[in-house]
Design brief:
The chain is mainly β and about 90 residues long. Helix content is about 15%, strand content about 40%.
């Protein structure tokens, strides 16, 4: 029996921080910028958020043509649009 192929056009990954982690938005933005400035052609966008804002409110959004990254106090989410990747699950 021939195995099915799956076409993948977009990949999304989310990394969750350990519960009650002491995340400082500016420090994380600076660290991510230094590590990813060659990947993104744009600058990360951040607005002042009150300290008592819910943990799931985005602290930073970084969008590019094919890639985006967002983080809040719960985790980091990254998305990458691919040209096309064919996966053979049984091959």
């Amino acid at each position: 029996m021939k195995s099915p192929n799956v076409n993948i056009y977009k990949v999304q990954m989310t990394y969750f921080f350990k519960e009650k982690s002491e995340i400082r938005a500016f420090g994380l933005i600076s660290s991510l910028y230094n590590q990813l400035k060659d990947v993104f052609k744009t600058e990360p966008q951040s607005i002042p958020i009150p300290d008592d804002a819910p943990a799931d409110v985005p602290r930073c959004v970084w969008n590019d043509i094919n890639t985006s990254l967002t983080f809040n106090l719960q985790g980091i989410s990254a998305t990458d649009k691919m040209k096309q990747m064919v996966v053979d699950f049984y091959g």
